[in-house]
């Protein structure tokens, strides 16, 4: 019978038994210990692109694209909201775009300083927060201003465009005269009547005064012949309106109705030698 390999001590090349000490006097080993196992050292190595099947790579690429497409709208929305918030805070909450100038256009009867004072917009007020309608309303409170338009002129100015009232008549008041517009609004006081404006004699001039409205209606009905000779309009009552002409003749008008007919008849009779022409009933004219 063959014997198996010997399980005794290791045998050197010379056949002598070794007990764990080499001939060079090295460290003594432990008798009977088995051979030491080598330590394992791991290393990660990136696999080449050809190590992953093409179908898997395509699947993963599509998955990444889906994730990107799903996240993109949210990212854009967040970015837009952030930018909008930053812009809103800059425009509405800081003085970076604040009012530094109030530019007035069309001022003749009022001064730009008066307009700016009445507008009452503090310096550096955020331009976007200015209530344009409220500013225009305050400016229209100035008597000579018929209409005001206020706009923003970025980045730092308000532009005010004025339409001032136009006088159509003057009314004697005390030692001077007041100028009224087509609506009867008193907007100016003068010493002497401006050239070209007729004189209206009423007790309480104003847009709410019936006598003022009646006188303005009569003035609007006059033809060039009568207007050229007119000195003043006397309103003693709503049915007692008369015109005094430059040659001291009087045209009794009556009330303000049928103005165009009365004007035509009165102009046709101006050549008559009469001091008083009554056209209060234009169908039946009397003069003396």
In short:
This protein has 288 residues and is α/β, with parallel strands linked by helices. The protein is 30% helix and 22% strand.
Task: Give a verbal description of the structure.
The chain has 288 residues and is of the alpha/beta class. 30% of the residues lie in helices and 22% in strands. The strands form three sheets. It has a six-stranded mixed sheet with strand order 7-8-9-10-11-12. Helix 6 (259-268) links the parallel strand 10 and strand 11. The longest helix has 40 residues, at 54-93. It is rod-shaped. Mean pLDDT is 83; it is low at 1-31.
Which key features would you list for this structure?
single chain, Rossmann fold, 12 strands, Ubiquitin-like (UB roll), 30% helix, 3 domains, disordered N terminus, rod-shaped, 288 residues
Strand order of the largest sheet: 7-8-9-10-11-12
Report how far the terminal alpha carbons are from each other: 178 Å
Average pLDDT reading: 83
CATH topology of the largest domain: Rossmann fold
CATH class of the largest domain: Alpha Beta
Overall radius of gyration: 53 Å
Please give the share of residues in helix.
25-40%
Could you state the oligomeric state of the chains shown?
A: single chain
